[in-house]
Every structure is written in C-alpha cells, then in structure tokens.
Design a protein that fits this description.
Order of helices and strands of chain B: HHHH
Strand content of chain A: 5-15%
Strand content of chain B: under 5%
Strand order of the largest sheet of chain A: 1-2
Order of helices and strands of chain A: HEEHHHEEHHHH
Number of helices of chain B: 4
Radius of gyration of chain B: 23 Å
Helix content of chain B: over 70%
Oligomer: heterodimer
Helix content of chain A: 55-70%
Largest sheet of chain A: 2 strands, antiparallel
Shape of chain B: rod-shaped
Chain lengths: 300, 97
C-alpha cells in the first residue's frame, strides 16, 4: 500500500519542488490544433467555381466505401457452411441490420430497404473505424524518411466532417418523405404528421411543431454522428500530447501532465474504438429505419 | 501567463486595441468552457438515469434482457449526443464569434 502511494507522491513532490516557471502558462501559439482537421487539396479540381479538390476527406470516403464493398464481395464469393472468422463477423452484422430493419420497417418494405440500411451501416462503421487508424494523410507536416518526403501520420475520419453525415442524412430524409407520399398520398401523408387523437383547433399548433421537428431531425441526425466522431478525435488529439504541446510547460510539468493525459488518451481511444464507432453507426441506421417506418405507418 | 506580463505590458505601451483583443480571446475561451461544461450536466443526469433504469428493469424481468439492452444503447447514444450539441455550438461561437 505504501509503495503504491509513493509513486504519485514522488511525482507531486517533484512538481511542487520544480521552479515556479514549471507551472507558468506560456501558451504555444504556433501549434494550431484545428489544423488537424484542415483539408488541404491534394489534386485541385474546380468546376464552375465550386471547389471539388481531392483531399484527405475524399480519400477517407473512398477508402470506407471500397472496404465495405470488398469485405462483402469477398465474403459472398467464399460462403461456407462452416463459417470462417470473417464470415462469422459478417453474419453477426447481417443479423444486426436484419433486426434493425425488421423491428422498424413494415414487412412488405423490408426487401426494398434492407440493402440500403445494410450499406449505410457498413459504410458508417468502416469510415468511423478507419478514422482511428493513424494513416499518413497529414500533408500539412511532411516528414523525411530515408530521403523521401512522406506525409505525417494523422487521425481523421470522413464522418468527422459535417458534409458526409449531412449528405447521408439528406438521402435518408428525402427518401422517407418520398416513401411516405408513395404509401399514403401527399395530402394524407402531411395530415399524418399530426398525432392521432388531436383534432380541431389544437391540431394547428401541433402541426407546426411537427413541421419544425421534421427539420430538426436533419440537424440532430447529422450533428449527432459528426459531433461524436469529431469530439472523440479532439479528445484523443488533446490527451495524446496536444495539451502538453499547447500549454508548453517546463520539463517537469510537461512530464507529469503528459503521463496523466497519456493514460487518459489510451482510455478514450479504447472507449471510442470499442463503443462509439459501432454505436454511432448503429444509431444512425436505427434512426433512419425508425423515421422510415414512422413515415409509412398507418397510425402516427 | 506570467505575472511579469503585466509590468511588461505597462512598459511596452500596448495599445488599447491589443489589450481588448486579448480580452476578447479570453472571454471567448471562458464562454466555450462554461457553455460546454454546463451542457454536460443534463446529459450526465440522463445517461445515469438510463443505466439506473436498465439495471432496475433487468433485475425485475431478467427474461427481457436482450430487448432492454438494445433499447438501452439507443437511449444512451441519443442522450450522450446532447453533450456534443453543446460542444459544437460552443465551437461555432468560439471560431465565428
């Protein structure tokens, strides 16, 4: 017990014995943490004044979609009665998406919407997961290895940029509106937004609240995914050394702070990879299925 | 920042604009911290409530465990995301304000 207490006590004593400048704030103005999310064009493309350059976000989107396609095609080509490890994982994924779709979408629409939900889940899962692999994509800082300039390793995810979740959300929202109109006709679909049992004058304010909530869905669905991934990356960035560089303490302060935040960085990393990446893909798919089911359901 | 900064500022004849700029930056940082911090209170209570209720319902009806677990994660993710709404709007205010 005493030995266990000794280690933090020694660190504390060192920190207290250090000259006062060890704890003095001297913010490092050169280090800009937001640059980690800056998109520098790799290949500049401009069409009609719109910037369509290839940058690392585009690379991550492509990587996620290629990985999703390759995994499923690879497994589909090699189906066995006795599943190998990859096939077993894919079967778990298939069962999960099946339960999401079956639980929320009416029976006759499952065949049409299962592929969309499955593709959505796998794409989001892959783009969240490869976001936690350090890949050489940071062209802001070049490192020279064996005489060759290589981009330094960076964490980035396509879903940590608002455009990708927003585009997916718009696809989901537009398609469930279309399905709703197709199932019920435009007038009774819009009427169906008012909950059953509300009638007369009370229906008017409730209808407006429902209209607003349709727009809030766009924001909440996209920002939930985007903010979760962005905040996870920021936490890992700050804990895994960003804070130490930014605060620019003297050597002892840096070591103590670095040890504390380094442990936290590992904990956050495990939390993000183990839970948040999969959970956010699951939530996005589930909410899409719930919205779709709600749009075509007979009773709101 | 060191306390010596104050004497340095006094001697170097820093203009009011520069001092104001630093004040603005400081206030924005404080606002982001307070806003994001306050935003975590509600979801914190909410996440605790969800897991408390899950424990309560699973001990009451252990045969419903699988169904409750899937709803639990839905509720957890929906509540947890509210922290990040506060954080994102704080960041927007910080960088655009």
């Amino acid at each position: 017990m005493r030995a266990r207490l000794l280690a933090p006590a020694a660190a504390l004593a060192l920190a207290l014995a250090a000259p006062s400048s060890a704890l003095a704030l001297n913010i490092n103005e050169e280090f800009k943490p937001q640059n980690e999310f800056k998109l520098t064009p790799w290949i500049s493309i401009e069409i009609f004044g719109i910037d369509m350059s290839i940058n690392k976000a585009v690379f991550y989107v492509l990587a996620a979609s290629v990985l999703a396609c390759v995994t499923l095609i690879w497994v589909a080509r090699r189906m066995q009665m006795k599943p190998n490890r990859v096939q077993a994982i894919v079967e778990v994924y298939y069962g999960l998406v099946d339960s999401i779709t079956r639980g929320n979408v009416p029976q006759e629409m499952i065949r049409r919407w299962f592929p969309f939900m499955a593709a959505l889940f796998l794409f989001l899962w892959f783009s969240n997961m490869i976001g936690y692999l350090p890949l050489p994509t940071n062209t802001e800082h070049m490192v020279t290895i064996l005489g060759i300039e290589v981009p330094s390793l960076a964490l980035y995810a396509a879903t940590a940029n608002i455009s990708v979740p927003l585009a997916l959300t718009l696809v989901v929202v537009i398609s469930y509106h279309i399905e709703g109109v197709r199932a019920k006709g435009p007038v009774s679909y819009v009427k169906g937004w008012v909950p059953a049992g509300v009638s007369g004058a009370a229906a008017v304010p409730i209808f407006f609240i429902e209209v607003i909530s349709q727009f809030v869905r766009i924001i909440s669905l996209s920002v939930r995914l985007f903010a979760n991934i962005l905040a996870g990356h920021l936490l890992i960035l700050f804990m895994g050394g960003g804070l130490v560089i930014l605060l620019n303490l003297a050597i002892i302060g840096s070591v103590v702070l670095g040890l504390v935040t380094g442990v936290l960085a590992v904990a956050f990393y495990i939390f993000e990879v183990g839970l948040v990446a999969t959970l956010q893909a699951f939530i996005f798919t589930t909410l899409s299925a719930i919205y779709l089911g709600g749009a075509v359901a007979e009773e709101h | 920042m060191d306390l010596t900064l104050i004497t340095e500022l006094a001697q170097s004849g820093v203009t009011a604009e520069v001092a104001q700029e630093y004040g603005r930056k400081g206030m924005k940082a404080i606002a982001l911290g307070i806003g994001a911090g306050l935003g975590t209170i509600g979801p914190g209570i909410g996440v605790g409530y969800i897991f408390g209720k899950v424990i309560e319902s699973v001990t009451r009806q252990p045969e419903m465990k699988d169904e409750i677990t899937s709803i639990q994660w839905l509720g957890f993710a929906l509540t947890e995301a509210i922290v990040f709404y506060a954080f994102i709007f704080g960041l927007i205010a910080f960088f655009l304000g």
